[in-house]
Amino acid sequence: MPCSYSNQNYMNISLTKKNKIKIIITDSGLGGLSVHALLDKHLRSLQSNHHVELVFFNALVSHDLGYNTMKSTKQKLKVFNNAIKGMLKLEPDIILIACNTLSVLYPLTEISKEITIPVISIIDLGIQMILENISDVSESQVIIFGTGTTIKSGVYEQQLLKHSFTENQIISQACENLESEIQIDPKSKEVYKLIEKCVNESFRKINRGTKEVIVVLACTHYGYSKSIFEEKLSERFGKKIKLLNPNEKMGKIVEVENLRNESRSIKITNKVISRVDVSPTEMQNLNLLLAKDSKAVVTALENYILDKNLFKEYFEE
Of 149, 233, 282, 308, which sits most exposed with the smallest number of CB within 10 A? Predict the structure, then answer.
């Protein structure tokens, strides 16, 4: 599946043009709430007279129809295109796609050709993180852990090949169903099992003489189970691993020097909207993980807005 990229000029967000800014963070599930929490935490460290409204928009169409289980690319594009239309009704100033799967799909949607506001892809930030953290391209390998849609797209390989990497330096490893299991419980036995399987499969593909291995968690859900990845990667690869979580970079994307010159505290409001319900188990597990970064986002999740008409579903005939 071919993929183009979002406008790189939008990589730094300026809040100086308007006093009130609305930022939508979207994901194909609840993994992107980690980005929402990190962004809320980061904004609170800035000094500004701005009011920033952070809205998490769950682009999942139903519990039994995830983007990675849809039967065709046509169906995925139709659903996400409709979801973006739903986002635009909220009149955002910026959309952050905190999802690798949706970042792959976005440039292929019809609405991407018409949209006029900044839309920032987490894949762009993941590539940027790799380039910032690698010591010597010639002596390194990169492992991309992601969903089937992300891995099949080849989007990370396409971009890394433009930066002096060779094909045998890039290992793309699909972790099938992992994002779904993490959403249920990020520390479950099934999650341990699936992560161990992914790590073992990637280890078999690595060049044993490699001095440095960069590992990218190319799914926003995976960050919730980062400690398990660290444990399993350490068992297999030892100390030459550098683990990157693009969620962390997207969570600091608003970084404008002018804000720090203000003397007033920034005003932030948080909202979570979904067309599917959040189960008590999901709520409990997510709250424990999000609380370390933002209690405000925990409160927003506890008071989430359930809107069955948030966007139109699409089922192939």
Answer: 308
